[in-house]
Amino acid sequence: MTSAKLTYDGKDYELGLIEGTEGEVGIDTRKLRKDTGGAITYDPGYGNTGSCSSAITFIDGEKGILRYRGYGIEELAEKARFVEVCHLLIYGSLPNEQQLEEFSRRLTLHTLIHEDMKKFFEGYAASAHPMAILSTMVASLSAYYPDSADDHDIDLNIVRLLAKAKTIAAFSYKKSMGHPVIYPSNDLSYTQNFLHMLFALPVEEYRVPTVLDEALNLLLILHADHEQNCSTSAVRMVGSSQANLFVAISAGINALWGPLHGGANQKVIEMLRGIRNDGSDYKKYVAKAKDKDDPFRLMGFGHRVYKNYDPRARLLKKAADDVLAELGVDDPLLDIARELEQVALEDGYFVERNLYPNVDFYSGIIYRAMGIPTEMFTVMFALGRLPGWIAHWKEMREDPTTRIHRPRQIYTGENSRPFVPISER
Ligand code: ACO
Q: Where would I find the beta strands (DSSP E) of 147-207?
């Protein structure tokens, strides 16, 4: 099979095929508009559209497979540290000992944010959503570390972004609590440093509990990349105009915030809380989700790509049990989540539509047990997704065939008509 045939307006067109390393096939429609004299492909929501080719992440939604650069998510979750996964996604290979040491050292050295940027936090209300703070602060990094065409400078900005985003996230949490900010410590690892900046207080010594460090490491790895999802596509879209790294990633953070994407983790907990406050009648909420006249959806259920089970949700379900047991936390919301999942998985509506729990369903339960407030959940997701966004931005930038992203449309508005003077309207 080397081509596909399209018959349009009585004429045959031969379309080339593009095949990926896992046998995925794309029909090449790049010349369609030109060859047919104007016809375009129509695919709102891009469910059948390949926007690029990419060597970063492979997903098989039918089989529930997720791999970063060829490594299965289950193995990475069990054996890797998040910093290794950052290196893998961004530079294409797992680091050897020396590379890991050097990469970790650079990430540590760039963790501080410019003192002037600290003043920005004073301008926000205590109630400001930390996602609003994160996206604007990341965009503001471009004011301190200007764009450059030099590969060395670009790489330095990548390291700066990875290193500083967690400081910004921790400072925004401290701001919301009314607590003084805690500076990073060069003795700590990437994940320990973040937890330290989140939970330490100047009045007492704080040691990062291993269980929190391990849980954070797992959560960050599971969120690290997911190929051309909404936020990554936003990063590529903005980056395709050759906008700088910081503003392209800021666009990704904003896209992630929506409740149909990364914002779902906050909504899951709000939903579970709502169900508990309503007498824990989860069956009523399953019925509401099925009712087409009711806008309610089961948050944390369903996925555009996974039609079997989200492999990340499977890992997180187990991790939720383990982390809560180790922390000695008994969370009634976890019981509601388990029951909701059980009912939904057996219900014809969800079975027919292949609706399974996604990554956001159990992550919030773990964040809660770790002591992270609900409004910070999507920020945690963003920190995990950073290396994926960066890897895609870098891949797109280094690809000489990249063109500015500019989709077409089918216009459905008025045809040409003369202007009507105000006296005649
Ligand atoms: N609850 C109830 N019904 C649902 C749900 C849900 N959570 N999700 C999808 N459906 C139904 C739809 O109503 C639709 O039914 P129909 O065929 O009878 O019209 C069918 O399942 C297909 O749904 P779509 O909205 O067409 O699926 P799409 O691929 O466009 O959306 C999405 C995927 C956005 C994830 C959707 O499942 C959803 O809204 N889920 C809840 C929000 C959520 O958890 N988002 C996080 C996703 S993971 C991530 O981004 C990290």
A: none
